[in-house]
Amino acid sequence: MVFHRTTALLLAVLAGNSMAASFDCTKAENFAEKEICRDGYLSSLDTSLSRNYKAALLKAPDRQDALIQSQREWLVTRNQCTTQKCLDQAMVTRFKAIEDFTSAEIGRKLELEQQQQVVKSQAEDADRARRKHEAYVAEEQAYQQRRQAAQQQTVYSQSNTASASSTYQPPAYQTGQQPHRQIAETPEETLWQQIFSVLWKCTLIVAVVMSFWAVIRHRREEATIYNNYTDATITNMLPVTGWGIGLLCGWLGLPHQVYQVCVVTGILLAVSFAIYAAVKSNRGGLNILLAIVAKITFVCVFYVVMGFLILSFFGGARRKGESLTQAESRRRRESRNTRVQIVALSAGYSFFTAWLCRRAEFTSLSECLEFDPTLYSA
């Protein structure tokens, strides 16, 4: 630091060596002023001091009074010198003092700007937090309004239904049979729903039992579920292929009926190939039936479970009393768990399907579709 100051002082003196003093030498009165006018070094140094002093006044407009006062006090001290050594030391000391003052003022301004920047950043953060809170409150109010509107609509619909019923239904005193007939309709619909529910559950149980039976006979080499990897791949990929082609047609802007036809075609082809492969790879009606049921059951269960997992990505509505941040965090957590489940289910089903293959190899499509009717002629 001392080296830098000394260098700056020498440069200032050399630069102003040809310059006169900062005051009118014709009016010099005391020893200091006369010596500055006589000595070129001191004259140049006085000029540099004057220039730095004026620059310091411009850089510190709010501290000009203190700087002016210190300059006056220094002039009194300088004018008391009676030797050149005293005068030289006084001027060098003042030069360093002005330089320190300027450096301190620059540092103070930088610190002030940093404080203002911090205050500005805090104000911006507070404003963002306020806007976020206002947006959350507005969204919460809109949600409550939609909920109230839906409840009012439900009440209004129920009141209209009750009003229509009271308007168009004859009263009980006009006929005693009408109320009994209407009461009997509801249990009849509920009964059919219960029958259908019981039927599909029983069908699922029977399919699962037959599938396990087919697996047991397959492991005993009495029946064949999948002949090889090609058989298993075609059976399992046909439904998803039809679905993928349907999505492509929908993306191309084709009618929705084309998507439905592609999906149904993929499912029908999968069922047809499963029946064909079961008939080709098994002998006896029982083994063929068990292989067909096992293939269809495994494929259906896999795709149904996979469909539920994929649909869970589109759910996750905000629960009662749950904030937006909590809801987003819960959705991300559920989405991550669902992806893990999809990967685990796909890997597990792939290993299970490979385990059910009679031959651990891929064959050509022509060999897989080849059918020898002489094997069943007997």
Structure described in brief:
The protein is 79% helix and 0% strand. With 378 residues, the chain is mainly alpha-helical.
Number of helices: 11
Q: In total, how many domains does the architecture comprise?
A: 2
E-strand count: 0
What is the residue-averaged pLDDT?
80
- Rounded Rg: 48 Å
Low-confidence stretches: 1-19, 178-187
Helix proportion: over 70%
What would you say this structure looks like, in words?
The chain has helices at 2-15, 31-38, 40-59, 64-79, 84-168, 178-219, 229-251, 256-281, 285-311, 324-355, 365-369. The longest helix is centred in the middle third of the chain and has 85 residues, at 84-168. The chain is elongated, with a radius of gyration of 48 Å. It has 2 domains: 2-125; 190-373, no CATH class. It is an all-alpha fold and 378 residues long.
Using brief descriptors, characterize the structure shown.
single chain, 378 residues, mainly alpha, 0% strand
Break the fold down into its secondary structure elements and pairings:
Elements: H1 2-15, H2 31-38, H3 40-59, H4 64-79, H5 84-168, H6 178-219, H7 229-251, H8 256-281, H9 285-311, H10 324-355, H11 365-369
Helix pairs in contact: 1-3, 2-3, 3-4, 3-5, 4-5, 6-9, 7-8, 8-9, 9-10
